[in-house]
């Protein structure tokens, strides 16, 4: 896992210079939510360029403010929290994190989601349906990020199926939320071009 995190940090550190930053505000709060193994810590570390060997999420750790620059433009990422993927810990912090966020990334292992989609105790779907989706509103930039998409047996078909399930859940559990066209992204964290897509969404 450490080499993967280091690779993601190195790539994003280089890539951010080529993208347009969040236009409406120059100071934003970003949160990443997801169960264990979803890749949320990779994203938070990458944003702040934290050395992975010095970092371990035990419960909820404070992340430093960071200023990212592009030419004469800059954007400030406020101090944040990297929350443990433990289900009980995650549930207790989710609503609070969403309320104070400008950008919310909900990460999940797409392959596990697919395997367990019909299981009555599907933790990911339960977490999104009961906790995340009822808490979101259209003032937030909201992204559902399916990681480990390279493990999906029929990637294009499976991605479409997962999006359908999440869209239906949003329709049933939060009728007032306006889902943006680019709200879903699926990626393989080992692929440069796929990480770049995630970076692009972060800084548009």
User: Beta-strand level of the residues, as a percent range?
Assistant: 15-25%
**Helix-strand string:** HEEHEEEEHEHHEHEH
C-alpha geometry: globular
The chain-level mean pLDDT equals 76
Work out the helicity level: 40-55%
The CATH architecture designation is 3-Layer(aba) Sandwich
Instruction: Tell me the major beta sheet.
Output: 4 strands, parallel
Number of E strands: 9
What is the terminal separation in angstroms?
Answer: 28 Å
Commentary on this structure:
The chain has one domain (about 1-204): 3-Layer(aba) Sandwich (Rossmann fold). The chain is built from seven helices and nine strands. The chain has helices at about 1-15, 40-50, 85-100, 110-115, 125-135, 155-175, 190-204, and strands spanning about 25-30, 30-35, 60-65, 65-70, 75, 80-85, 105-110, 140-145, 185. The strands form three sheets. A four-stranded parallel beta sheet has the order 2-7-8-9, sandwiched between helices. It has a three-stranded mixed beta sheet with strand order 1-5-4, with no helix packed on it. A two-stranded antiparallel sheet has the order 3-6. Strand 8, helix 6 and strand 9 (about 185) form a beta-alpha-beta unit. Helix 1 crosses helix 7, helix 3 (about 85-100) packs parallel to helix 5 (about 125-135) and helix 5 (about 125-135) packs across helix 6 (about 155-175). The longest helix has 19 residues, at about 155-175. The chain is globular, with a radius of gyration of 16 Å.
